[in-house]
Amino acid sequence: MQHSILETEIQLFINQNLEVPITKLALQKNPFPTIAWLTILGQIEAKAKAKDKLPTWFKTNDIIYPTKLSIEQTSSEKTAYYKSTLIAGDSLIDLTGGFGVDDYYFSQKIKKVAHCEINTELSTIVKHNFKQLKINNIECYPGDSTTTLDSITNKWDWIYIDPSRRNDAKGKVFMLKDCLPNVPDNLDFYFQKTKSILIKTAPLLDLAAGISELKNVKNVHIIALDNEVKELLWELHAGYNDSIIIKTVNLLKDKIDSFQFTYNNNTININYSLPLRYLYEPNSAIMKSGGFDQVAHLYTISKLHKHSHLYTSPECIDFPGRTFEIIKNIPYNKANMKSFLLNAKANITTRNFSETVENIRKKWKIKEGGNQYCFFTTDQNNNKIVLICTKI
């Protein structure tokens, strides 16, 4: 398949049809009978998916793509680059190589990278692509990564792992022991081969659960891309038993919002206040971190309520999240809703509120969109309120 899919005519056809709906293409007759039509359609679908997520691959000639699902599951270039800033040294072995996006960026910082992939066909594709990308310091090892790691006698500066959930564990609570490889059970073996381990997990994993399953955790990085949490990174170092630092990062187009705090530091005193002039909503990485008191303390702002996770201040500050100016603060009741929001157009958010956004829209006939932002929440006196705001 690999040789034929790279024929000039087929590559030209793929590039010319990237914006054509795949359902429409599927109805056409295959113009290249020597290769399966589904294979060509798969390349078109996967490459179209890579355009924004993997621009380096997209712009490089003669790249072979795996399934669209593999592209969806792989790291984006932006998150892969961030990971590369966390590591240093001469050698790294990736036990779950996949499409190789993380390793491409690791290879910019590390002299020798080993890409292990149990799917031999995918390993062959990745090896070909690294050649097209002119990467010469990554060695591809097809087959079981545990066997590969055991057979190579040298120590590594880093081990990188992106464990995948087993199919039979889909309905259960997400635990690392339910993944392949089983990182908690293999940690002692891994630490025989390295002093530093970086583990990537899906955002679904609970921080407390991950910390309880692992050991020697130094940092946990919560990575969001354009305010959507994409992955958690667990940084382990042999013998480390000190405080764990939670680091939140929101990668935006023009900047990076970052915030960090010490895990389980419950000695923070914070202020509560009724809504003042400005309102702050933390980004999704901070929301995932649970550092709600810590963000109030660091930015010297007040919380509206213990469980609302909205903040306020009299002066506008630079905050890692969304900032609003409060135009009206009204008690949530029938009279006020009829006066101010009935049949209105607004963006609605609920925090610590008994009704859903869908129910509120239906009940008060509020259309979606516009420049008005309404927060339905609870204040420090346990009163239900609506904050009508404009975004800054």
Set down the secondary structure blueprint.
Blueprint: H1 2-5, H2 8-16, H3 22-25, H4 37-53, H5 55-58, H6 68-73, H7 77-84, E1 91-94, H8 101-106, E2 112-117, H9 120-132, E3 138-142, H10 145-151, E4 158-161, E5 164-165, E6 179-180, H11 183-193, E7 196-201, H12 207-213, E8 217-225, E9 228-237, E10 245-251, E11 256-262, E12 278-282, H13 284-289, H14 292-299, E13 302-303, E14 311-313, E15 321-331, H15 334-340, E16 345-350, H16 357-364, E17 367-378, E18 384-391
Parallel strand pairs: 1-2, 1-4, 2-3, 4-7, 8-10, 16-17
Antiparallel strand pairs: 5-6, 7-9, 8-9, 10-11, 12-14, 12-15, 13-14, 15-18, 17-18
Pfam families: PG_1098_Fer (PF22013), Thump_like (PF18096)
Domain PG-1098 ferredoxin-like: 278-320
InterPro entries: PG_1098_Fer, SAM-dependent_MTases_sf, Thump-like
Describe what this molecule looks like in 3D.
By secondary structure, this protein is of the alpha/beta class. It has helices at 2-5, 8-16, 22-25, 37-53, 55-58, 68-73, 77-84, 101-106, 120-132, 145-151, 183-193, 207-213, 284-289, 292-299, 334-340, 357-364; strands at residues 91-94, 112-117, 138-142, 158-161, 164-165, 179-180, 196-201, 217-225, 228-237, 245-251, 256-262, 278-282, 302-303, 311-313, 321-331, 345-350, 367-378, 384-391. The chain folds into three domains: 2-72, Arc Repressor Mutant, subunit A, CATH 1.10.10; 74-262, 3-Layer(aba) Sandwich (Rossmann fold); 278-391. The strands form three sheets. The chain has a nine-stranded mixed beta sheet, with helices on both faces. It has a seven-stranded mixed beta sheet with strand order 13-14-12-15-18-17-16. The chain has a two-stranded antiparallel sheet with strand order 5-6. It is globular and about 70 Å long.
